[in-house]
Amino acid sequence: MQLKKHLESSPKSLRIVEKTIDQVTSEYKVSQENYGKILVTALEAVNNAIIHGNRSDSEKFVDFEVEYRNGMLTLTITDEGTGFAPKNVPDPTMPGNIEKTNGRGVFLMSKLADDIEYNEEGNSVKLIFKNI
Given a cut of 80, is residue 100 above it in pLDDT? Predict the structure, then answer.
């Protein structure tokens, strides 16, 4: 199963993401624990793509793809921005970064997904959930 959505760079698009995750996790009877992880990472990734990637530019879009195969769910989120270097995002758990608001979403996604991959440009993230 594969679903693709071409989303506007608008907070309203988060509702579409939520409905899509609800549909897929219901169809494949995903546990409540895994549902929470999937929903939080999906919303965080799409929100980052809208705000940081596309700079909330209404002329730009976010592609959101959901694929389920053999007990594994993969979410791919791609924006039209210039990208970023994930390794340069400061660790929000370090004492000097505790008060900073940036970097928390990337950290959270990396902790909740079983695997996370970024493309070379840094404008696309693949979130992988195994054995759901």
Answer: no
Confidence of residue 91 (pLDDT cuts 50, 70, 90): confident
Closest CA to 128 of 62, 70, 88, 80: 70
Separation between Cα atoms, residue 43 and residue 107, nearest integer Å: 14
pTM of this prediction exceeds 0.85: yes
Q: What is the DSSP string of the chain?
A: -EEEEEEESSTTHHHHHHHHHHHHHHHTT--HHHHHHHHHHHHHHHHHIIIIISTT-TT-EEEEEEEEETTEEEEEEE-SS----GGGS--TTSGGGTT--TTHHHHHHHHHSSEEEE-TTSSEEEEEE---
Token pair for 102: 């940036």
Edge-to-edge strand list for the sheet holding 124-129: 2-8, 61-69, 72-78, 124-129, 115-118
Q: What is the pLDDT of residue 125?
A: 98
What's the pLDDT score for residue 78?
A: 98
